[in-house]
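Changelog-adjacent note: as of this version, every example in the card shows the full chain rather than a window. The one below runs 295 residues end to end.
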Amino acid sequence: MFGEMAGKYGINVHWGTPSAYFASISTTALPTYIGDFFPYMSFQSAEPRYWTGFYSLLPSFKRSVYETAKLLRIAEIWGVATGQGRLEDEGLCLSLHHDAITCTCRPHVVKYYRKELEKVRKAALSSLSQSFSQLLRPVVSPKETNSTSFLLYNPLNWPLDDLFSVQSSTALVEIRDPYGEIVAAQSYYSRHTGLYEVLFRAKMPGISVGVYTMSESHSEQRAVLSTRKKAWNLVGKDFTLLFSSTGLLTALSHNHTMHLQTQRFLSSSSGLGGAYTLLPSSPSSISLDLLYMDF
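Full-length structure tokens:
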């Protein structure tokens, strides 16, 4: 084979070893490429295909892969403590394929990856529920009315001191830790859910589980509210920003001059899907919708 390559194509090939390879390149000035390898173009038909979007296509799918991987790992950790068997992770492994996580595949294939990933997520949640039901004693309902108990867990083997959030239908609430102590909390109104998001600080030791309680509070000092439901402005020293009720920037005022801003979210779609979404040579094949969506 080596003789055939040398005779027909002028390519000299011979067997080598790692030491021979490194000895050869140590005396050879190799070229250095500086720049980006993407996007690049390939001809798989009469017109070129531009490979782009590896890091930006289907952001919610990429996030789902990340969150499911974390959830599965947490379920595995607590499953060891309760003697549960190995969890099925095939759907997660599929989503980590180089044509899956990069979304270089057709829409119906992405749909299949999503379905398999959801199976893993549900299995992990079911496993966690079984683990915690074995590890925790029954929770005694607090004496306060309109109270809710919820569980926090730290799957890390080091202490955790972080902010957490829980939803509430009322703004004035207080959060108590597993020892009954009130923890610092504040709430804000979410237009997306129509509920209040209550942020609170929790300190948890490594590999631990704790039951927290949320109940109504009659002290406004425990809640910092943000209930904007109308258009609002952000005023600076030399400028003013005007926002709509949905949070979009509508205008900018600078030196007594008003600059109107129009924001639109565009999404492009193509039957080819994946990295072939953008086809500069055939703009007629791209459909644009005034939507902000993950397709």
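Structural remarks: Residues 221-228, 273-295 have pLDDT under 50 and may be disordered.
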